[in-house]
Amino acid sequence: MRLLLGVVLATTAAAAQTPSVQRSVTVGGRQRTYQLLVPAAAKVGPAPVVLVFHGGGGKGKSIEASTGMSAIALRESFIVAYPDAYEGNWVDGRTDFDIPAHREKIDDIAFVRAILTDIAWVAPIDPKRVFATGVSNGAIFSHFLAARLADRIAAIAPVVGGIADPFHKQFAPTQPVSVFAIQATKDPLVPFGGGNVNKSKRGKVISTDEAMRLWVERDSTDGRAETGTLADKDPRDGCTVTWKKWTGGKNATEVWLYVEQGAGHTWPGGPQYMPKLLVGSVCRDFEASEVIWTFFKGHPKP
Fold it and tell me: Tens digits of per-residue pLDDT, 196-205?
């Protein structure tokens, strides 16, 4: 079940074919690793940086292979990094979750700061265009990261992972951050309406509606959302997508929500990495990695 929650979307063999290189940094006396891809054009810089966080039990290499974000980075000339969590899990604001990272008080915010510093030795970074996305545990961590590191993160795009409970009680980003959340209504692991993760003692998340409310209030966007529906490009996938967009926020921030009606704990446009009975189905109406990058391009810091 750890692998289910982690959304391990690719095999080791497939991951080995991806173009990144491994780097390491020392944080709190521990050596931490991450995968890094710097396209040649990005070395001229300053270039955007996209941080991609794997799910619980995963690795940076596997999420690189499954999302296809490196291919987009090579095409669009942005830097992309895939950090590795300590013993497979991010400290994301949940408390009722017995994992080594919690027991050993791992500081993943410091890890992200160290990664950004390390990348800057390789290529010039545009400080106005540092973005983060992730899936499952990595998505929950993306919310946590943006709230705790709002001075560095311009926008986030969490996929099937909400704001942790009880962290939401301390939710207080120091600056507005644009948010593009992708949530599925039939996610059997991270419930759309909030509650226990994986129906067990893996902590809790608040509801998607409450998470969006927190960001809308913090970003001071228009309280009335624009709404719409994506074209149903693949009627066979059992998924349709509705969207909400809160615009006009402070510092030009926006909050977007894609609701995958009928989809499960999966990366839209990605592989059906486990049986539908266990994780639900993959939505084929859009490619998450492509729309996430488009969102990031349009939402730098001022």
Answer: 999 887 899 9
